[in-house]
Amino acid sequence: MSLKYNEALKLLIENLSKNPTPEQQKYMQDATEIAEQLNEGFTNINSIFKGIISNWDETSLFYNNSYPKILSGVLHLKMPFNINPKPLLIPIEQELTVVTLKTTVNHPAVINGYLNGGLLSTLFYSDLFKVITQNTRIQCKSGKSYCLFFCMDSFRTFEIRAWDSAIEKLEFQYRFALELHFPNDSIPYICFDTFFMENNKSDKQKKVRIIHATIHTILIQLNLYSTLSIPVLSKVTDAVDFAEAPNAGETLLKVLLKIIPMLQNREPLKSVYIKLLQFKKSDSVEMSELMELLNLR
Questions:
Q1: What CATH number did the domain enclosing 46 receive?
Q2: pTM to 2 decimals?
Q3: Residue pLDDT, tens place only, 44-61
């Protein structure tokens, strides 16, 4: 049965996510075990974040496992107090709402009655540093041992990298911003400098996440991360404006076109690109053709 090009890519990712291989299940279990040990670490140091962290699964990205991960890129913090949000008039993108969060609670990240996003991020960074310092190597039930490294960038995005200690290879990473949930407010908030942004979920966000998962999964399946290295390929994907991407199929072609000149042996990927371009132009493809082209048979 023939499908439209983008419909075929979407269905392919959906099918892959429903049927993880035993090897993929091991990767996912390892990521879950590491997250559990990190949560336990926050409890062991009596952190202000103990018991309130969740959603690790939607922040972990694999590099040697083509299981499609739909990422949210936010780590949930279930804050134990009420807030009173006040909108700020800041000239940024129209769909984004920046607020201050007023509260009466006594908390290390509260200054003069307002929760401070920058201070909260710094406190989380400090406690995460303590946790990872005490858990630099984590042994999982799969038999694999992982070394952990982490950082926070200027946008207050956190990144924890898990390296297979036996072969010194980056297997996956957790990458996230902090998303705050409060008992008296249904809207989640993300730290924005010293302030916060409303993070209302939208169809556009869902579309971006699916496009990203599609591109990332196919790049792994084509062995491009191992061929070019993770840093090199990450620069290519980081340069993509996923928010403005029309669909997965067109975005995939643009990404592959940027990668081809970087390869020493360009012909195999060029052949894949030409075939995908044919599928796009005809807007017709058999699922069996697509799977064979992407080495999924």
A1: 3.30.460.90
A2: 0.88
A3: 999 999 999 999 999 998
Q: Are 177 and 76 in a shared domain?
A: yes
CA distance 82 to 85: 10
- Same domain for 225 and 85: no
User: Tokens for 53?
Assistant: 């962290």
Question: How many domains are contained in the chain?
Answer: 2
pLDDT at res. 227: 86
Q: Which domain, by its residues, includes 89? A: 21-201
Same domain for 230 and 142, yes or no, is: no
Q: Which residues in the chain belong to E strands, given as ranges? A: 2-3, 53-54, 60-62, 74-78, 84-88, 98-102, 110-111, 114-115, 137-139, 145-152, 158-164, 169-182, 185-192, 195-198, 285-286
Under 8 Å between Cβ of 187 and 200: yes
> Per-residue pLDDT tens for 90-119?
665 556 789 999 999 999 999 999 999 999
Neighbour-count burial for 140-149, b at 16+ CB within 10 Å, e otherwise: beeebebbbe
Domain end residue (candidates: 146, 174, 201): 201
What distance in Å separates the CA atoms of residue 11 and residue 290, rounded to the nearest whole number?
A: 11
pLDDT for 17 equals 86
> What is the C-alpha to C-alpha distance for residues 33 and 39, in angstroms, rounded to an integer?
10
